[in-house]
Amino acid sequence: MRVFLTIFLLLSSITFSSCSSAKKFAPANKEIQQPLTGGNKSALYKAKMKVFGNFFSGLVLFKYNKENNDYNVVLLTEVGLTLCEFYCVNNQIEVKKASSLFQSKMAQKTLAEDFGYLIYELGAVKKVAEGVYKNSDKVKYTLGTEAKVQRIRKRRLINGIIVDLEKYKQGVPSSIKFKHRGIKFNMELSLLKVS
Amino acid sequence: MIKRFVLGIFVLLISGIAMAQQDGKPITVEELQKVMKEKTAGVNTISCDFIQDKHMEYLETIITSKGKLFFDTKNRLRWEYKEPFEYLITINNGQFSISTDGETNNYDIESNQMFSKISELIISSVNGTIFTDTNFDVKAFEGENQYVIYLEPNIAELKEVLKKIKMQIAKKDFSVDKVTMYEMDDNYTEISFINKKFNESFSNDIFTAK
């Protein structure tokens, strides 16, 4: 019995330690940064959205506050009305306020998640292939030239997503295309201004 | 506590008086309506450039966009953003159209309450008749060079989106110089109309979104 217990404890400790080390990723590669880095104060994009075949457009402002290391993301109409505002700190994004014209919780949640992919700090990532890294949430980042993120991919049965990022200008992508899987919602962001 | 309360009331009163003095002497909407009607009777079309500044106070951000506007007395409108993005709104013959990036959405004003309201709001802001709109409580002031009108929405749909609208009308030609829309938070959008031209003839096509 004692021998059995010793073997059991020994095996258990090996199994648990190997499990925990499997979950632990290599330290974050410093060359990899989130697509919208904090080096810029703000980036303004024109947004085109297709939701269940209907076309919508607007503007999206990403505003970085260096002091608190946080972001405000504002969705507004071209004529200037604020539709929804998100606040992101410590890789947590939430709806700060929403106009009566933009009350769909599902739309708010989907947009919050999409914007999060652009501004979340990558944290610990591990190399899974040449130029491809994966974080603990199983989000894959494909890097292009100058170690800029070219593609973000999250596999899921419902609401999987591919984000293609192109033509970096002043450190931020000029074109960002979100393709959702499982829900009929696609979004394209085109850079208007960065400061 | 009472001292603070009285001081608060005093500050509010002073700031209210200061604002009214800055804008001019109060006048009735009927007076303003009468003058506007007389002075703009001969205007059939307006075209101008506009500069729109969206102020987000707490984010210390201003988003500027520019464009061109055409309007005629048949209540047809072309509101076209050219910088930094292209976006076109046309209102023509009961139809409200939005066109951007090769996509055009058409809405029937009669059958769509929201677009009917937006259409009314835009048209009346441009032609300066917004102060006769019963959806707003109106206060008007006459200054040296301009009339200043404050409009506060009194219906729920508008109240949820807008706190108030400030409209500045030039005395020299009785056209709208500036419209400022204040949202429920500190955000506001200021639209300045410049390079105004009156009674130019336009092609009918200009009021069609393509």
TrEMBL record, chain A:
The residue range of the signal peptide is: 1-22
Keywords in UniProt for this one?
Signal
Please state what the protein is called.
Answer: DUF4292 domain-containing protein
Q: From which organism does this entry originate?
A: Plebeiibacterium sediminum
TrEMBL record, chain B:
Question: Quick one: signal sequence residues?
Answer: 1-20
- The answer to whether the entry has keyword Signal is yes
Its keywords, alphabetically, are: Lipoprotein, Signal
Identify the InterPro entries for this entry. LolA/LolB/LppX, OM_lipoprot_carrier_LolA-like
Family annotation (CDD domains): LolA
The answer on whether this UniProt entry bears the keyword Signal reads: yes
Q: What is this protein called?
A: Outer membrane lipoprotein carrier protein LolA
